[in-house]
Structure formats: C-alpha cells, structure tokens
C-alpha cells in the first residue's frame, strides 16, 4: 500500500477541507457537512448561485473554485465517492436562504454525481426552490461513448469560470443555463497517465509497466482507450491532440483552422512542474501548426487524480464573449492569475547585448608575453587531462565523481579557444577572458568558483605588471571565492591549496625577490596543503555531507589546484 501523508485514512477528506478553510478567510464550512461556501453569502441575494462538487481526491476541484466570480459553494464526497444527497440538499438550502435568485448545479457526468445531485434537485424543487442542473461531459477518449456518455473531467473547471462570470455580471438563470450548455459542447479533454493512483489505505487501482503510458484514462483511474510505450513529450502531445480532433471519434472536439481556443494543461497530481512546462510548450506548438490560435493557456493542477503522474489537455473553443468570461476577475484561490494575451511558441526573444558598456576591448594577441602565456596554458591543460581519472576517483568519495571530467572540460575549452585565436596580450585581459570561458564551458560549482577567482584577479592586474601585482591578484581572487562560496582554509576544498600558494606569493612584495624561487615555494605549499586535506573534515561543498571517516584521500579540488600551479613552472 503506497505511503500517504494523512492524519487518518477515514478523516482525510474532512481534514483537507478544514485545512483549505483555515488558510482562506473567504471560505466557510457548512456545519455537519463537507460543503464549502463563500463567506459573503449575503452578496448572493438577487443573483444566481452556482453549486458543484464531487468526490475528494481531485483537489483543488471543486472547493478551490469557490469564490466571487466562480462557484458559490462546493460539495465534497469521500475520496473518489459522490457526495451524499443530504449534503447537496443542505448546500442548496443554504444558498436559497441567502436569497439566491435561482441555483445552478454544475455536475460532472458520472452516474453517482448525476443521481445524488439530481435527487437533491428534486427535493429542493419540491420545497419551492428554483434549481437547474447542467451535466458536463468533456472526455474525448472513447470513439463510441455508449449509453453512459462522455465522462466529466477537467473541462468542468472552465464551465465553472464561464458560469461564474455570468452570475457575477447579474445574468439570469435561463441565460446562464443556455450559455453554459453551449460552452460545455465546445469543450474537450483527454488524459494521459504514466502511473496509477491509490486511495489512502488502498493499493493502486491498476498497474502500468515501467515503459508504458495509458491514453484516455479517467480521473478515478478508470481504464482508458489505449496502452502504449512511453513516448517523448512532443509525440505524446501530438497523439493526444490527434485523438481529440479525429472526426472518426464520436466524442471528438471539432476545431477548424483559424478558430481560437483556451488551452488547459492539467497536472493529474504527480507530474513534475518541469514536465508540465514541456507538455505545455509542445501543445502550443502543435495547435499553432494546425492553424489554431491559443487565445489563453492555463498550466497547473486544476483537477487531479490524487498522486497520478499524468497530464490532461483541455480545449474550449472561444469567441470574444466567451473569452471575456474566461478573463473576468475571480477570487477563487485555485484559478490562475493569467495575463490577457495569446500563447505562442513564436514569442520574440530579447536580444543578447553584444558589448557590455564599460568593458575594455580585448587587445589582439601580439604582445611579447603571448607565446609565454600559450605555453603555460598548454602545460596546464595537458596536466588536467592527464590527471582526469585520478581526480574522478578522489571525487567519488563525495558522491558524484565528476571532478576530473569537469576540469578536463575546462582544459579542452581552453585548447579550442587558443587554437581559434591568440590569447589577449595583457595579463588582466587574459584572466578576464579565461573567466568568461570557464563560466560558459566548465560547468558545475567549479566553473563558477574559478570564474569568480579569475574575474577578481583580473581586476587587480589592470594597468599593472610588477611582481607584487600577482600577489595582490591571488589575494583578490581568494577573497571573491570566500565571499560567495562560503568556504575557508581548513574546510577541505581547493581554497586550502590556493591559500597556501598565496601565502608564499606574498614574498613577491619584497623588493629584489626572485619570482622563480617564490613560485617554487608556492607550488610546494600548494602540494603540501592538498595532501593535508586528507586529514581534514569537510566543512563546505558536496563532501561536507559525507561522514569524515569515509574521506580517506585528499580533496580533488585542492589536488587540481596544486597540479595546475605545478604546471606553470
């Protein structure tokens, strides 16, 4: 039985509604029932009230759509169970007593919902209440729906919105029924699932193999029309839309090129936001390729099936009036705050600035130091490529084992860069260009850390060529790494080698110091510091999550820094 984060299996529907009301000052519970009502019921006097509902487990439907401009109330049953007649009738009575000028029940096309809402309607009518009912069946799954008709699924949410906007504008019950009935005929929905769902305390209602997906299943886990191998998102979306608009499918949605639609990309509960965005983009592209204008796109969780990993696509054909109703304001917490404008895959991108104001232009690589710089960079690159496997092996203790790959990527990028053009002539411009290169090509935290170091070091070298400038540059680079990276000497990172080398380079500030001797001392200090990390406890970086008893080798970042400094000699 799958794990669920509930207080009790039997009370989960009640607890969920209580949580919703606790967090929303505009909602109230009807005492003794799973009924959510607007807190401003007196405002309903003289207007049409709207009531919907169904089983729990489809959150935020339907209680999330209670608010000004949408539903006046919502009735919930137990998980995947139709609400009882008594609760529906109690909700109708509450709205009638508030002075509603007629009540419309918006019901999804399931036998239990039709029976229970229908029975409550008949009872209310016998009490003299003006109640009507619209049944929504928007499922495009079955080519021959049969006597039961099309199931009511996520398209019902758009019907809530159309009806709510009409009621808020003061439309009468006859007008709302007429326009909502027309809108419900212009809506189609199709679902696609990668996994089953499970009622709290129960096993999943069905099984899907790891390489399978199911087309057209219902929001309670009812069987769909076809199981197939998992497809890439764009192909899956294309399959869904083809099925929805296939004229040979008796439950298809008839759309012609040039028409406008509202698109709803609905998370069935367990799909990641990343996947949902991919599906949404694919749907917009596919519809545009068919000549269909996506006047509005709503992307999110609107009508779920517990934790089912899947998505449904809903299309509603709209004209100007229907689009205005979709755009009308509502306080319902689950309705998204979408901008008034079409969705398109052809959105113009913001151009990238070609030159950064104030950044000095690179000088051509013709200075006397260019061959020297190329030789040093080539030795550094060769060294990093030679120790790639060693760095990976050291890094595996911290979990990912990619330190060698990351540094090798940097080495290859530097080589390709040098072959494409001579390096800049001045040390400042050289380090600045290397910083840009590593930020773009190296990847990982290392790329950013080296980028920080080189950018700050380059700033210290502007207009300077004296030996002391290199000591200042080293200190500036380390300061930048510490400021943003959060590590310090002794934390078992590349900083240990860098700080040891920097300490030795301070001798360059002494008049008459031999730069070669100072560099030799810096390399020796870095190598000793790298070896000393073997006995340190990691306090920063990914290795800090590993028990120190497992870290028996030197830190790979510190080893890489020492090796690069050694290659300079």
Folded structure, characterized:
The chain has 569 residues and is α/β, with parallel strands linked by helices. It folds into two domains: 11-327, 3-Layer(aba) Sandwich (Rossmann fold); 369-568, DhaL domain (Serine Threonine Protein Phosphatase 5, Tetratricopeptide repeat, Alpha Horseshoe). Helix content is 43%, strand content 13%. It has 17 helices and twelve strands. It has a six-stranded mixed beta sheet with strand order 1-2-4-3-5-6, with helices on both faces. The longest helix has 19 residues, at 467-485. The two termini are 64 Å apart. The model is unreliable at 361-366 and 545-549 (pLDDT under 50). Substrate binds at residues 55-58, 108, 113.
């Amino acid at each position: 039985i799958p794990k669920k984060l509930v207080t009790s299996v039997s009370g989960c529907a009640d607890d969920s509604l209580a949580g919703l009301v606790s967090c929303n000052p505009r909602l109230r519970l009807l005492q003794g029932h799973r009924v959510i009502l607007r807190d401003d019921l007196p405002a309903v006097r003289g207007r049409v009230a709207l009531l919907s509902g169904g089983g729990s487990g489809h959150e935020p439907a339907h209680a999330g759509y209670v608010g000004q401009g949408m539903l006046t109330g919502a009735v919930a049953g137990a998980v995947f169970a139709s609400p009882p007649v008594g609760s529906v009738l109690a909700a109708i009575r509450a709205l009638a007593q508030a002075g509603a000028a007629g009540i419309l029940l918006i019901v999804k096309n399931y036998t239990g919902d039709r029976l229970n809402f229908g029975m409550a309607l008949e009872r209310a009518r016998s009490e003299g209440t003006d109640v009507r009912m619209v049944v929504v069946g928007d499922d495009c799954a079955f080519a021959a729906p049969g006597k039961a008709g099309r199931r009511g699924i996520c398209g019902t949410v758009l019907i809530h919105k159309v009806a709510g906007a009409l009621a808020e504008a003061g439309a009468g019950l006859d007008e709302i029924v007429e326009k909502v009935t027309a809108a419900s005929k212009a809506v189609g929905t199709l679902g696609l699932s990668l996994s089953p769902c499970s009622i709290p305390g129960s096993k999943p209602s069905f099984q899907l193999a790891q390489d399978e997906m199911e087309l057209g299943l219902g929001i309670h886990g009812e069987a769909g029309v076809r199981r197939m191998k998992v497809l890439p998102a764009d192909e899956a979306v294309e399959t869904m839309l083809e099925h929805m608009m296939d004229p040979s499918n008796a439950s298809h949605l008839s759309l012609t090129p040039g028409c406008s639609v509202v698109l709803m990309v609905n998370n069935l509960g367990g799909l990641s936001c990343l996947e949902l965005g991919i599906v949404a983009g694919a749907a917009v592209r596919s519809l545009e390729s068919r000549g269909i204008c996506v006047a509005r796109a709503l992307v999110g969780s609107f009508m779920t099936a517990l934790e089912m990993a899947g998505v449904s696509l809903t299309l509603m054909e709209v004209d100007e009036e229907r689009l205005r109703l979709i755009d009308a304001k509502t306080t319902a917490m689950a309705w998204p705050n979408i901008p008034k404008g079409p969705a398109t895959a052809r959105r113009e991108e913001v151009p990238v600035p070609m030159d950064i104001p104030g950044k000095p232009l690179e000088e051509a690589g013709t200075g006397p130091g260019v061959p020297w710089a190329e030789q040093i960079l080539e030795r550094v690159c060769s060294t990093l490529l030679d120790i790639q496997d060693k760095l990976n092996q050291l890094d595996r203790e911290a979990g990912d084992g990619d330190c060698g790959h990351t540094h090798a990527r940097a080495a290859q990028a530097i080589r390709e860069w040098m072959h494409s053009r001579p390096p800049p002539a001045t040390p400042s411009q050289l380090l600045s260009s290397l910083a840009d290169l590593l930020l773009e090509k190296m990847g990982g935290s290392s790329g950013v850390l080296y980028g920080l170091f080189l950018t700050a070091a380059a700033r210290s070298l502007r207009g300077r060529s004296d030996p002391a400038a290199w000591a200042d540059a080293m200190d500036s680079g380390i300061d930048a790494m510490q400021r943003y990276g959060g590590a310090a000497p002794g934390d078992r990172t590349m900083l240990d080698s860098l700080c040891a080398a920097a300490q030795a380079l301070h001798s360059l500030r002494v008049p008459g110091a031999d730069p070669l001797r100072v560099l030799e001392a810096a390399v020796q200090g870095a190598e000793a510091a790298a070896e000393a990390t073997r006995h340190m406890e990691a306090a920063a970086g990914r290795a800090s999550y590993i028990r120190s008893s497992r870290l028996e080798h030197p830190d790979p970042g510190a080893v890489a820094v020492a090796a690069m400094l050694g290659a300079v000699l």
